[in-house]
Amino acid sequence: MPSVITIPPFPDDVPTVPLVVVDYSLILQRDSAEIERLWDAARSLGFWYLKNHGVDMEADAVFEMGAATMQLPFEEKMRFEQGDDGNSFGYKAAGANATNAAGDLDTPEFINIAHDDVYAWPKVVRRTYPSTVNERMESTMIPFVRKSTAVTHTILAALNDKLGLPEGALAQLHRTDEFSASETRCIKSPVGAPGAKVSLGAHTDFGSLTFLHNRLGGLQVLPPGSDTWKYVKPLPGHAICNLGDAVAIFSGGIVRSNIHRVMPPPGAQGQMERWSMAFFLRPANHVVLNALTDQSPLIADSVRKAQLLPGGRSFFTGETAQDWFMRRIKNQRIKNRTGPETWMSSRGTERVQTE
Ligand SMILES: O=C(O)CCC(=O)C(=O)O
Ligand SMILES: [Fe+2]
């Protein structure tokens, strides 16, 4: 199991980004100093560590589900492959996605489980999964997804207030009783050759909030204004949170969906398989990704200012969350590639960040 393997230390001679540590137990108590810390992180890099979130045991169980799933015969996993039409639920084989405009292939395998299927279990509402997932729906997936939904909604509520939105405005766009692309992903990356290329290509996240559980290094961010990728060092007992495109657009650019990628783990960690796992909170499928200017003067002001800048940005995509997500997934698939333009069609808000 990934969680009981001894992990070599993260090297101390690689560039890392110092992330703010947010204490979830204080956010839950609506501690204003802690909410301010979260607010600063959300607006500057859009990434932060989260401690005292209380989901570690459940996260370990999801890693165990991922390990059991990846051990299934390849043909069995391929019975649940996500396909090329823009759906991400199910299995994604290594090499199914491009990592850049040149069409270089990704190396990780994923198992993606739709939250809609977890909420509705034992009813199947989006798709079916391998037996290793079904057997753990009650023991593992339901507790993990319930707790992670609560954590991510609590963070969203704190951001909602700071954005000057009416109470519950963001929650209303992320209702758990409406279908969405929200999912839990367990990722296995094989041991790479030293100096191996990018494992998961540079991207911004497609939805609103990612709650990421990392054991090994490899995740990198490109901080605003920098041309050097920096590692995010995994810290025991700390999850990593980052904001995605949807909430950056809703906020009119006040909060940031920062570009990131995954490289083979650095130093001695490079000798190991890399496992990671993420809970992705995304808006309901029908929600249109536009800035919420009519609900917050702060957001209206931010959009006005952004549009006055040279090359002024629009925060009105007119695309639904479902179309935005499916376009991005579909155009990453190597089978759909016609040329560099396919990669460009897979892009979200990273279009305005350096790649
Ligand atoms: O594996 C990681 O550390 C990050 C994965 C990621 O960025 C993603 O799946 O969107
Ligand atoms: Fe990501």
Key phrases:
single chain, 355 residues, Jelly Rolls, four-stranded antiparallel β-sheet, 12 helices, 32% helix, globular, binds 2-oxoglutaric acid
Can you describe what's shown?
- The chain is of the alpha+beta class.
- The chain has one domain (21-352): B-lactam Antibiotic, Isopenicillin N Synthase, Chain (Jelly Rolls), CATH 2.60.120.330.
- It has 12 helices and 14 strands.
- A hairpin with an 8-residue loop joins strand 8 (219-221) and strand 9.
- Residues 185, 187, 200, 205, 212, 214, 219, 260, 262, 276, 278 line the site of 2-oxoglutaric acid.
- Fe (ii) ion is lined by residues 203, 205, 260.
- GO terms for molecular function: metal ion binding; oxidoreductase activity.
- Residues 180-283 form the Fe2OG dioxygenase domain.
Could you give a quick summary of the protein structure above?
The chain is α+β, with helices and mostly antiparallel strands. The protein has helices at 24-28, 32-44, 56-70, 74-78, 115-120, 131-134, 137-162, 169-173, 245-250, 297-308, 321-332, 340-345; strands spanning 21-23, 47-51, 90-92, 109-114, 183-189, 200-203, 209-214, 219-221, 230-231, 238-243, 260-262, 274-281, 288-290, 316-320.
